[in-house]
Write the structure tokens for this entry.
Amino acid sequence: MCESDRLETFCDGVFAIAITLLVLEIRVPTAERVHAAGGLLHALAGLWPSYLGYVLGFLTIGIMWANHHAIFQYVRRTDRYFLLVNVLFLLTIAFVPFPTAVLAEYLPEPAERGDAVVLYSATMVAMALTFNALWWYAVRGGRLLEPDADLHAVRTIGRRYLMGPPAYGVVLVLAFFAPWAALAGHALLALLYLLPERGR
Amino acid sequence: MCESDRLETFCDGVFAIAITLLVLEIRVPTAERVHAAGGLLHALAGLWPSYLGYVLGFLTIGIMWANHHAIFQYVRRTDRYFLLVNVLFLLTIAFVPFPTAVLAEYLPEPAERGDAVVLYSATMVAMALTFNALWWYAVRGGRLLEPDADLHAVRTIGRRYLMGPPAYGVVLVLAFFAPWAALAGHALLALLYLLPERGR
Amino acid sequence: MCESDRLETFCDGVFAIAITLLVLEIRVPTAERVHAAGGLLHALAGLWPSYLGYVLGFLTIGIMWANHHAIFQYVRRTDRYFLLVNVLFLLTIAFVPFPTAVLAEYLPEPAERGDAVVLYSATMVAMALTFNALWWYAVRGGRLLEPDADLHAVRTIGRRYLMGPPAYGVVLVLAFFAPWAALAGHALLALLYLLPERGR
Amino acid sequence: MCESDRLETFCDGVFAIAITLLVLEIRVPTAERVHAAGGLLHALAGLWPSYLGYVLGFLTIGIMWANHHAIFQYVRRTDRYFLLVNVLFLLTIAFVPFPTAVLAEYLPEPAERGDAVVLYSATMVAMALTFNALWWYAVRGGRLLEPDADLHAVRTIGRRYLMGPPAYGVVLVLAFFAPWAALAGHALLALLYLLPERGR
């Protein structure tokens, strides 16, 4: 295996595990809760914040996986610092199940909703920042690029990535005042990424 | 690595983790339960709904893994939308441990049994639908097929996949009236798939 | 990727996850337990059944991984039934964290110790049986062997595998009468496998 | 796949899972705790020992992954004993989530802090010892080296690895007397490794 292949495989493992662990935050309703809700189906319906968190976390990690995947279409070499920045980026990815669980737990509580969305948004900012660090470290001066990399494509992609931190930063500020609007912002940013052809 | 190889590896990771997380829903019996059951072996025997859920969930994910595997014998390229549909399909796979845990918990309760089987069956319908979306997106007009793909085999496979959503839909409707019959339906559908040569 | 490569990768994922999930059965001692034990170090020392279960489960899954690895040195093709038997074998591997957790919980209780070792031993019997099914299905009449496979080595390996089910069966019977002796039997069987050169 | 490739893949799986399981030790604050802390953000801030443990455990496993990665740049063959030592090394890696969880739980308690750091440090010593066993078994007399391995590089690397066990041993002794200093020692050792060019 070439060096960057093994790094990719390791990162993919972390992505795959973090995305699959999200399901553990959806708890089976207890007998008491089923009784209070008037039946299992009603209790299951009452878990909507958990489902919402699951879908949001799943799409987020899925999108970041695809982005990370895109980096390695241009980067074929690695070095010590690149490995280090990668570990910091993975640290934010593997962290996602925690803010997602907090979101699922406190979204229905008006008093705590804002704080839960702040935590989630701050995690997204950290993720966008470390992801950009990864990209710019690799492409700066063509450091880890393949000799025949398409520099025009690299610049176009890079400019798009650069918009991530300020965009998530705005959503983070929004989260302090308007949690639901911030959540809608997260959904919108995910959609924008998922349907890029529309955005052009 | 070619593009579809990395996608396969990522998906296989999600399959492998989801299938292995199923065991976490089998809880070690508490000392009180052991005492009430009159010994550990009796308490372990009382966990039969958990074992049933474990086996059913394991076979289901195992079968879907084999099906997904089959897709990639014909599909060698990917694009943005294919990735997206894949993420939606994986979202249903990684979700399986939750309905399985609900099934294991509420199967012995006559009042809640039906609802638990409904949730499980609905998950299967979502899985069959996203799986078909994946397949038809890839083969439609030969979009992501290898140039020399065996079109006759592609058509035969596709027709078989198409039977999935209506079959699971019937089981879902059945679940509202006859939970045990619906469970038998799930076992039957799994067997039909596992022993395809018999079915021809 | 060749067909058996993807199967290997999937199985390796299940092995890696099952082996790593074992650590989740070691629970952080509660503040009450720390207080009762007279300090954290004493409470940690009191977790010896969990450590024992962790090491035993880890070695068991590690050994089975190496055995499974050995099969694929001879088997390069797969078919539908081989996939199915593989799924049944993986079902026993992914199950190991449960009997291990039961062992860790009830080993210190004289009244339940035997039952806990019975469950563990029965799991080992099921594992040895499905593993043999896997091997014999593949090599029977050279079904899935490489054309130039070393048939002498295949026969030697097969004879060694065949000893697994009766050996674990004896330990299972022993578990009903003498749990500690049965545990020693498991350790001995693991050692026999780990140091094969010594055994020749 | 060549023999050492499959071993690498399996080990990478264990690394990736152990590193991602770390997040499970960060528990969502209960409603009572949120109330007592005067809001969710304050309760989240009160989880700093969990975050510290998460970051420390993540960097530790990440570093060991990179080190393990380095071994396989020189080792291309495996044998039975190498597999066995690898399993023992992985046993210490997969164990890390437990001492990390203990650290996160008991770091704020002055009476138990020392014991928690002792457990963490002892785990690091075991990890450094099994890692060295792995390295020296492979390179001793060039046993598993590629024929054209750069022996000068092998010696330089080996000398650096040899410093691990005594360095972690000193930190372990320190943990009995000065837990915070020992924790600083762990952070320092991690930094030393992460920024090697600075150290030269």
Remarks:
- Residues 108 and 183 of chain A are 13 Å apart (CA to CA).
